[in-house]
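Data deposition worksheet. Section B asks for the primary sequence of the deposited chain exactly as it was used as input, without tags or linkers unless they were present during the calculation. Section C holds the resulting structure in token form. Section D is free text for depositor observations; keep each observation to a single sentence. Incomplete worksheets are returned to the depositor.
Section A, Depositor: J.P.
Section B:
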Amino acid sequence: MSKELKLLNFVCVVVAVAFLAMAVVSALGSGDFFTTDNLFIIAVCLVMALLFAINPMLYLKAEGRLSVPFMKKSLPAPAGSTGQIRADTQPLLDAKGRAVPPDVKAMMARMNLPQAKDA
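Section C:
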């Protein structure tokens, strides 16, 4: 990780924690919790904390250091596999004889699956 990215993530985390602290101080320090002004300040502080915390969290997820609960993990590709379509499958062609893009080919494959009949 470069020094600039490390510094950016550190500053974002510090600012997010500061906004969380401001929300807690505002909630505990005010005499009446359910005033419009107090609820607005708490909501703004929580949204700003989320805004500054999301960047370091996305970076940690991209690096694989942050596990996301309730998310299926993808299976690793077999050794030697490049994730491309094998050569033994026939290319899907459009009306003019051009090859169809892989995303359209995948949609067509899903449409051609046999549907289970309701009893």
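Section D:
The helical segments are 3-29, 36-63, 102-111.
The mean pLDDT is 83.
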